[in-house]
Design brief:
InterPro entries: Ala_racemase_N, PLP-binding_barrel, PyrdxlP_homeostasis. Keywords: Pyridoxal phosphate. The chain is an alpha/beta fold. About 40% of the residues lie in helices and about 20% in strands. The chain has one domain: Alanine racemase (TIM Barrel), CATH 3.20.20.10. Strand 1, helix 2 and strand 2 form a beta-alpha-beta unit. Bound molecules: pyridoxal-5'-phosphate. The site of pyridoxal-5'-phosphate has 14 residues, from strand 8 and helix 9. Pyridoxal-5'-phosphate binds next to strand 8 and helix 9.
């Protein structure tokens, strides 16, 4: 099936308030171009170098999402153009993003990644670390970032009850903190759900899904 058809099928299952991030990692520029021509504007990548190469070759109105784990020393390469960084899980990384955003005279939107899965390999903050970060006096000094919400990844399992419990937990955290409005904290996005579990994620309150294989085929 074509990318256009896949994209349409995915979009038809999403409520209009849900932002679809087309996860194009490992896929050639021609695939992204096809999705772009079908109207897709939000694209997600997990490697900064690959994202930057694609950014340079594709139309300028694309909104680039960094969905992978970010190393501090690479932030500078995406700072001029990145729209939203999903996987932020430390003050150290936020400080570097702030520094590079300032150099580029812009504000960079970030999501705090929360650890919701049972696996040990996934990155993210736990609830108390999240609260500590949101309340940190140092965060309040970072003028060129905006904390735009939360991101999480459910366990890699067939157990739907467990996945639902993990999404429900993240949604609760999101609702608990979405009323904090400071100059650099303003929750809008709850990024959860991938190809295999996005319908459940949306039912649990997600308003931003990151979908790769359902659109571009398996990697
Ligand atoms: C690869 C990836 C996705 C998309 O995965 P699919 O199963 O192909 O939809 C979503 N989120 C993150 C963080 C990813 O790394």
């Amino acid at each position: 099936m074509s990318i256009q058809t896949n994209l349409k099928q995915v979009k038809d299952t999403l409520p209009t308030n849900v932002t679809l991030v087309a996860v194009s990692k490992t896929k050639p520029v021609s695939d992204l171009q096809q999705a772009y021509e079908a109207g897709q504007r939000h694209f997600g990548e997990n490697k900064i170098q690959e994202m930057t190469e694609k950014f340079e070759q594709l139309p300028q109105d694309i909104l680039w999402h960094m969905i992978g784990h970010v190393q501090t020393n690479k932030v500078k390469y995406m700072a001029p153009y990145v729209y939203l960084i999903h996987g932020v899980d430390s003050l150290k990384l936020l400080k570097e993003i702030n520094k590079q955003a300032l150099k580029n005279n812009r504000t960079i939107n970030c999501l705090l990644q929360v650890f919701i899965a049972q696996e040990e390999t996934k990155f993210g903050l736990n609830e108390s670390e999240l609260i500590e970060l949101l309340e940190s006096p140092e965060l309040a000094t970072l003028k060129n970032i905006n904390i735009a919400g939360l991101m999480g990844m459910a366990s890699f399992t067939d157990n739907q009850e467990q996945i639902k419990a993990e999404f429900d937990f993240l949604n609760q955290l999101f609702n608990k903190h979405k009323n904090i409005k400071t100059f650099n904290i303003d929750f809008h996005f709850l990024s959860m759900g991938m190809s295999g579990d996005y319908q459940l994620a949306v039912a649990c309150g997600s308003n931003m899904v990151r979908i790769g294989s359902n659109i571009f085929g398996s990697r």
